[in-house]
Write a structure and sequence with these properties.
Helix content: 55-70%
Radius of gyration: 46 Å
Strand order of the largest sheet: 2-1-5-4-3
Largest sheet: 5 strands, antiparallel
Length: about 270
Amino acid sequence: PFERKLLLRLILISVSLVMLGWFTINQYYWVCILILVFVFYLLYDVFQYQRRIFNELEQFKEAIHYRDFSRYFDVKRSPAELKPLRESFNSICDSFKNAAKEKETQYQYLQQILSIVDTGILSYNLSDGNIVWMNEAIKNMLNLPHVNNIFSLEKRNKELLTEIVSVKTGVNKMISLPHGNKQVKTLLSATAFQVDQQQFKLVTFRNINEAIEETEAEAWAKLLRVMTHEIMNSIAPISSLAETLKKLVEESILNNELQPSYQEDLQT
């Protein structure tokens, strides 16, 4: 509807200007004055219409700039020519609102997952060393409170800081970390990524002490099974021959056969 109204106003302005020229030529000046007033009114109406649209666009721009997607543009009480525009603005704001809500939900879900995993995760900015995120596992593993900058680790554990900074992307490195009264074997790995022209490094700490101990225990059990099998294979014929000899000695005693002087030793 507002397009038809705008087109109608433009047509009226064009016709009025043609009539103004005709009446001016024929010296109907009082009619010319009325036509001029009408033309000015139409121009002012078009100007007001454009200004309302500009104000609506400014409000929408402000809402997008400040991410105020809760703003609602009243459609029912708006002029007819602004209703389609406000409906479009409300639709766009709803889309942004749903996208932001979904993103926040995914972020919270990811936060919960990363907070309960056993692997320690640490992410920091490569340019200034500011820590972006660290989970609870890394705090417990390193026995550290929350730190804001990676280089603040130098006072607590300089060797650890050196290992974190020097570990290369895509390369796994095994280090020993003090935990209580013992050293814990930890697998260190890193990856790098870029966001908004800023580079970040994500380092993971995986406790492999239990895995190593379990592997060693399995290796010992396998070795014992192999050794037991080999020993039993060697003992079996000796045991069989000893049993046979024992029976022969017992039969000889029962038959009162002449025994050598080493009978008791042989029987033993």
